[in-house]
What does this fold into?
Amino acid sequence: MGNAFVAVADDYNALFYNPAGLARLKDWDGEILNPHFEVSANTVSFLKDLSGLASGAGGDTTAVLDLLEENTGKTHHFAAGITPHFVMQGFGIGAAVELNTTLAIHREIATEVDFGPRVIVPVMFATNLLEDRLSVGGGLKFVAKGGVDREFSINDIEAFTEKKKTDDTAAVDPAAASTAVDDDKPELKDYFEGGTGIGADVGMMFTPIKTMAPTLGISITDLGGTPYKKYDIGGEALSAPDARLPSVNAGISLMPYEANNMFVRTSVDAHAINQPVHYSKKFNLGAEWGYGSIIKVQSGLHQGEFSGGFEFDVFLFSVRFVTYAEQLGTVAGQDENLSDRRYALQLKLLI
It folds into this structure.
């Protein structure tokens, strides 16, 4: 739905978008094994071309260089994760665990790397007021992040090599000097970060009338900011990741048609209203058609580009598929190489 979900929040995603939506759930829902996989179109195209080189002109240096040149500046992305959860009216608990890899190689011999696990474990509560017109919710969440998130230049190669001392010991004992290592030499662990923290989310949803169910939704995620506490490995503390900034989000949804288990819903959102992010990356539009809880088809605009997907859910089996584009520049649409089209698939294997 183009990420326009703050005023909808009608399933387990309420745990991450707007906890007030938990108060409006009609049935409980629990999932244990629901792995998801996500890959960017750039990565699929690169692997396809690389496979062609391996089976054909694998020894052609020019073809290899042309392939690398074609992918210079493009972002490659892959992620895999799982979101086990249990939600019911007024309460929800879940966990979003994902191993994320994002890579961009630049012409000036530099590589942007974002790799590592991401974990969010929310515990949220919600209730209805004013004859169920107003829903309010909130709760706490445990967050953890680790891995690498930085740009590597050619100078960083020294992190993977030994650097010899250059002091006067070389003249006294060359053999000892050849095995000595500078105290200032960066080590691989210096490029890793890791930390854990506790954050809070709150939200509300207000539906003044039942006709077409016009709903205003407001949520604040990471209320007051969520700093990470440094994580220790072997008694040594890693660098702490940047704190999660508070985000004020608002949305409006409307259900122009609802009859015989069929419905049509539209929504519009503004995310991170309080943050210094260009407006072209804040607004989202979404539309959804559904038949009960069995099938849903969504479409929308996220950061100015098309998104869409579907969900098919029957008892112990469900499949969810989505495509969207992530704008990596400061302004949406500023460079086609900074638009990363992604595809994600999720399966539910057990209740």
